[in-house]
Each structure stands twice: as structure tokens, then as C-alpha cells.
Amino acid sequence: MSTAVVQSPAHGRLATGFDPAWHTRLVTTNWVRTVVWLGRGVLVGWWLHQALG
């Protein structure tokens, strides 16, 4: 969802020329996605630990 709604439009805007606001938006949303995936990985690791430990 994030890719379609935020990332792709930001990349499209930046493809036509550098815009600091769109660049900041893209970097910020990428960090949000990174943190969410990290949290997901920790949660799955904890679930596996609980199931196998």
C-alpha cells in the first residue's frame, strides 16, 4: 500500500527533477517502512522462539 500511495508518486516526481520536499518525503517514508519491517521481524522471531523454545 505504501509503495503505491507514497513511494511510486515520490519517485515519479523526483524522476522529472530534484525537489527537496519530495526527497525528504521519500526518505522519511522509507525509514518508517524500515522500522515497521524491523518490528515485524522482531515479532516473528519472538513467535518462533515461543513456539520452538
Give an account of the 3D structure.
The protein is mainly α. The protein is built from two helices and no strands. The chain has helices at residues 2-15, 20-52. Helix 1 runs antiparallel to helix 2 (20-52). The longest helix is centred in the C-terminal third of the chain and has 33 residues, at 20-52. It is rod-shaped, with a radius of gyration of 16 Å.
Low-pLDDT parts are: none
For the CA atoms, what is the radius of gyration? 16 Å
N-to-C terminal Cα separation, in Å? 34 Å
Tell me roughly what share of residues is in helical segments. over 70%
- What is the overall number of helices? 2
Mean pLDDT: 95
Quick overview of this protein structure:
Helix content is 89%, strand content 0%. The chain has two helices and no strands.
SSE map:
Elements: H1 2-15, H2 20-52
Helix pairs in contact: 1-2
List keywords for this structure.
single chain; 53 residues; mainly alpha; 2 helices
